[in-house]
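Need tokens for this chain, all 229 residues.
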Amino acid sequence: MKIDIWSDVMCPFCYIGKKHIEAAIEQLPFKNEVEVEWKSFQLAPDLSPTEAMDISTYLLERKGMEAAQVEGMNAQLAEMGKSLGIKFNMDAALAVNTSDAHRLIHLAHTKALGSAMKERLFKAYFTEGKNVADATVLIQLATEVGLDAKEVEEMLISDAFVFEVASDALDAQDMKVQGVPFFVLDRKYGISGAQPVASFIDALTQTYNEGKVNPSTDGASCDVDGNCN
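Here are the structure tokens for all 229 residues:
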């Protein structure tokens, strides 16, 4: 079965959702029949591709959040990440344009390294405070998961995968996706948000057995306005 996942590197609940669905897949008797493809969804496409700002400043100045709200969200994420092996270091995270990061994920997918690339970008963004819009950083991260540095460099200076990133965004718009992560199972059934592992197991099993999964919007997610809850 095929799982398409719309997400952004800047979305903390997309990172959590990735851990949850991977844990769910590992418990499936048909796990070797599951294919995952990561789809592009930019929460902040208006951000500069060359300039970065710390995430707290972005949330305070661009999204109008209160300082106490930001601190509370960061504390919640840190606690949620512990059980998943995620170290959320939000004080170091940099808000950037993620277009090139998404193009890199598309390139990695052609080498069967899409999930590995996604994981490395998440860790770089949320734990290591790396600028995932910087070409040098992206090349280094790509080589760490097994991509060829020269091929990545050539991709970044070209328009390769620009169409794919735009096409993913249009598909999300057609499906009226308002927040990420958003999961589509076998091109039929949609699940919104970072659902619990048990919920993913149930949904995946039902879909595999041709049962219908009702769309859900109860999971934690980040919406198109950049708000995460």
